[in-house]
Amino acid sequence: MRLLTHNMLKCHVKNCTDPDKQYPLRFKDVQIEQIEYEPNEEFLVRMLPRLDWTALVKTAKDLNIAIPDSVPEDPASDQEFLQKLHTIIMETHVTEGSMVCDGCSHEYKITKGIANMLLAEHEI
Amino acid sequence: MTCSFKFTVDGFGRSLSQEEKISVIESFSFMAFEGPIKMKNPDAEFFVCEEYGEPDNPLPKETPKMIWFGRLLGQGSRDLIDKFDVKKRKYLGNTTMDAELSLVMANQALARNGALVYDPFVGTGSFLLTCSHFGAYSMGSDIDGRQIRGTAGFRRGVDGISANLAQYGLADRVLDTVVFDICRNPWRDGPMFDAIVTDPPYGVRAGAKRLGRKNGTLPELSLKVVDGVENHRRSDYLPPTVPYEMSDVIGDLLGFAAEKLVVGGRLVYWLPTVAGEYDPKDLPVHPVLRVVANSEQPFGGWSRRLVTMEKIAPLQGDASAELPEHAPAHRNFRDRYFSKFEAITPETE
């Protein structure tokens, strides 16, 4: 699972509604794999406004991945920034481990890069 | 004119010898093409077709019925139907959509470079392949993780959707597939997708399911402790599901699309319906979604309609999908299908 996808997911357990705790989900015991791809600047620029930058910085720091603290004023013309963004959100894969909610402690397991976000019946 | 060029000459109804073809090409010498002749990737490509009528009784060589001349401006993509032919695909399931329709859906969704496309009923991932072929980035989810992983269906042992990504070289653009129920989805708030492309389950070949428990069965089994671990924390725990009725699926899908699409983004989905009873008013509508296209694929007693909608305004307040007030022809589609679409009479209703 890429960090782009992680940035879009929150805990959705019933009654777990504290926005500061249900998102971002905290990675636990993860295995990480870097796979190189050709960057697509148009896509990266298009995704920037849809990203939660604060959450991305928090997650990257948790995983000891270097990340700029803020988005430059004109990201579309900042190749160095876009390359870094590409490395973080597109090339970094979490292959095993889990994502934990700080609000309700639900653990979402990741197996072979596929996250299981199903809820138990008492959580819906 | 100094660009490189190529001529193709063909006879329809009569085959032309190489000498005859060359003489046709030479007849264009007055045009003074100065550029080099290039058989592969020329700058300009011209085509001459001489039509001679029926092959078993062609007109004489000197008097073709018609001569067609054209310059190649672009090519159709019909070869993609062969490329994405499901028979050639490493991994597929019993509800995998055929290649041509998957490609048509990608076009309807305006799948293009840099766009983000999502399929909430991803199954074996056909639409991720075709949308990403056209340059879009794609994601999918499904309540049934076995389909994604390749641990169910008739090509078990193949590495699920990822096997197809390797086959088509699309691992860079098909981003992720995640297991969850779209009725209880973990996407955070706000618009994120440029298109939602999906074939919702209508419960005929694959049972449509959502998380939940039927009334009257034992509740809260997820909290039961087995071997010292709460049941729902065990790795093989599968939450209970209940059937998901077609008209509910479509209503939920519209509500989801209205929130999660960016303005200008498109929802492309299949609506199965009983052929004789379908009324355009059956289509659920939403204040921020406009119908772009609604095309029928008939199958006799039933048909399915490919519906394309565009989000025309940001979602404000509590605007929600408006389901038809009457009973639409797709309601209880599964039961209607298995009862061979017998007309509903007051006695049987």
TrEMBL record, chain A:
Secretion signal span: none
**Know the name of this protein?**
Trm112p-domain-containing protein
What processes does the entry annotate via GO biological process terms?
rRNA (guanine-N7)-methylation; tRNA methylation
Which GO molecular function annotation, any one, does this entry have? protein heterodimerization activity
Pfam families to which the protein is assigned, alphabetical? Trm112p (PF03966)
InterPro entries recorded: Trm112, Trm112-like
**Which Gene3D superfamilies does the entry link to?**
2.20.25.10
State the family named in the UniProt similarity comment for this chain: Belongs to the TRM112 family.
Q: Which species is listed as the source?
A: Coemansia aciculifera
UniProtKB/TrEMBL annotation, chain B:
Q: Which GO terms describe its molecular function?
A: tRNA (guanine(10)-N2)-methyltransferase activity; tRNA binding
Q: Where is the Ribosomal RNA large subunit methyltransferase K/L-like methyltransferase domain?
A: 88-210
Q: Which residues form the tRNA (guanine(10)-N(2))-methyltransferase TRMT11 N-terminal domain?
A: 2-78
Listed EC numbers: 2.1.1.214
Checking SUPFAM superfamilies in the record gives: S-adenosyl-L-methionine-dependent methyltransferases
Q: Which domain of life is it from?
A: Eukaryota
One Pfam family name is UPF0020
Top EC class for this record? transferase
Swiss-Prot/TrEMBL GO biological process terms: methylation; tRNA processing
Compartments (UniProt record): Cytoplasm
Q: Which UniProt keywords apply?
A: Cytoplasm, Methyltransferase, RNA-binding, S-adenosyl-L-methionine, Transferase, tRNA processing, tRNA-binding
Q: Which GO terms describe its cellular component?
A: cytoplasm; tRNA methyltransferase complex
Give the similarity note.
Answer: Belongs to the class I-like SAM-binding methyltransferase superfamily. TRM11 methyltransferase family.
Q: Which PANTHER family match?
A: RNA METHYLASE-RELATED (PTHR13370), TRNA (GUANINE(10)-N2)-METHYLTRANSFERASE HOMOLOG (PTHR13370:SF3)
Please identify the protein, giving its name as recorded: tRNA (guanine(10)-N(2))-methyltransferase
The organism is Coemansia pectinata
